[in-house]
Every structure is written in C-alpha cells, then in structure tokens.
UniProtKB/TrEMBL annotation:
<protein>
    <submittedName>
        <fullName>FHA domain-containing protein</fullName>
    </submittedName>
</protein>
<dbReference type="InterPro" id="IPR000253">
    <property type="entry name" value="FHA_dom"/>
</dbReference>
<keyword id="KW-0597">Phosphoprotein</keyword>
<dbReference type="Pfam" id="PF00498">
    <property type="entry name" value="FHA"/>
</dbReference>
<feature type="domain" description="FHA">
    <location>
        <begin position="116"/>
        <end position="175"/>
    </location>
</feature>
<dbReference type="InterPro" id="IPR008984">
    <property type="entry name" value="SMAD_FHA_dom_sf"/>
</dbReference>
C-alpha cells in the first residue's frame, strides 16, 4: 500500500486518504470557498462577486461613501428626439413659416464616444451629425452644427451650444444656455433646439 510523505498508508495513489496531501510530496490545494452572497443597496439581493450584475454597483465601496460615488453608473445613456408643442408656441408665435409636425415618430440615439454633434447634415459642407435632425419632418430652425453632447469623466453627459443662431435650452423653454459652455445633464433632462425639437436624455 502506498505511503504518503507524512507516513500515512493510503489506497489512493494520488492523494493521501488520511491527510489529503499529495502522495508525491506536493502541498494539497486548499478546498474551494464559495463566495458569500450580498444584497445590492439599490434593490438587487443575492449578488455574488464584487459587482452587482444588475447595475454594476461596487460592493467594495466604503459604507460612508457619498451618494454620488456609491450610485452605480448606468449601463448606457440614450437621447430620444421628439416634438414639443409648448416650446413651438413660445418660439414661433409670430412665425407661420415653420409648421409644427402633426405626426412624428420618436427617434432614439445611444450616446457613445467622446462627443456627438446635434444638427442637420450637409454633405456639401461635410457636416454629418451623429444626432441628425434633418428629418422628415425637418426642423429648419436647427443649425447645421447646432450643439453637441459631450461625455464627462464620471460617465455622465453635458450639452454645449456651438454658437447657434436660435440657441439651446435645457429644461427651460424660455431662457437659453450660454454658448460654448458645457451644461451637465441628468437623467430625464430635456434639451430644446430649433423651433419644436426636444431631446430627452435618459440613463438606462
């Protein structure tokens, strides 16, 4: 009968029946330890591993971390383009040349990269906005290079008016934002451009 390096007799020629050690003198591998479950504070119980599988929350963050640090970054940001009647009425009260669209199917754009141009394409000028508002229907009050959505270091986005003729509004249909200055966006914020276009920003 084989004898392990510690002097135990074993029927198993590979691992000692008594101590579990290698019959050739190696150190036995420690038994696998199952990772404990934990409950994500954002309402997702039964997680295993460091990060929540639902929202990416980091379980290694200290308990006293500020809310903005503890909040999980969303998996993606989306811009949904639609038409806003109230903004149109305020903008075009004395202008009948721009007609409010009676039927418009909302369009969704997933935000990716460092920056996305908002505008209307013009192949002759080499302008190809990532968020192209050419239509149909076309909001002719939107500039060719009207504004831009710019990625921030914390995973959120900001909007920058590029010096447009008609301005860019954030959650305020009356007062436009200053040109060429980034304005941080939160999920649910609305960006108004042109005569009737509204772009709703959401984290999903």
């Amino acid at each position: 009968m084989p004898i392990c390096p510690k002097g135990h007799q074993s029927d198993d020629p590979v691992d000692c029946d008594i101590c579990g050690g290698s019959m050739t003198g190696g150190t036995p591998a420690p038994p696998a330890v199952a990772e404990p479950e934990w409950d994500c504070p954002n309402g997702h119980p039964g997680q295993i591993g460091r990060f929540c599988e639902v929202d990416g929350y980091d379980s290694h963050l200290p308990a006293d971390a500020p809310d903005q640090v503890r909040a999980a970054a969303p998996r993606r940001w989306v811009a949904t383009v639609g038409a806003d009647r109230e903004f149109y009425d305020l903008t075009c009260a004395d202008d009948d040349s721009l007609v409010f669209p009676t039927r418009l199917v909302p369009r969704r754009f997933t935000l990716r990269g460092e920056a996305l141009l908002i505008g209307r394409k013009d192949p002759e000028l080499g302008i190809h906005p990532e968020i192209d508002l050419t239509g149909p229907p076309e909001d002719r009050a939107v500039g060719r290079e009207h504004a831009a959505l710019v990625a921030q270091d914390d995973g959120t986005w900001a909007v920058v008016d590029r010096g447009s003729a008609n301005g860019t509004h954030v959650n305020d249909r009356v007062r436009p934002i200053p040109p060429k200055k980034p304005v941080p966006l939160r999920s649910g914020d609305q960006v108004f451009v042109g005569a009737w276009t509204v772009i709703t920003i959401n984290a999903e």
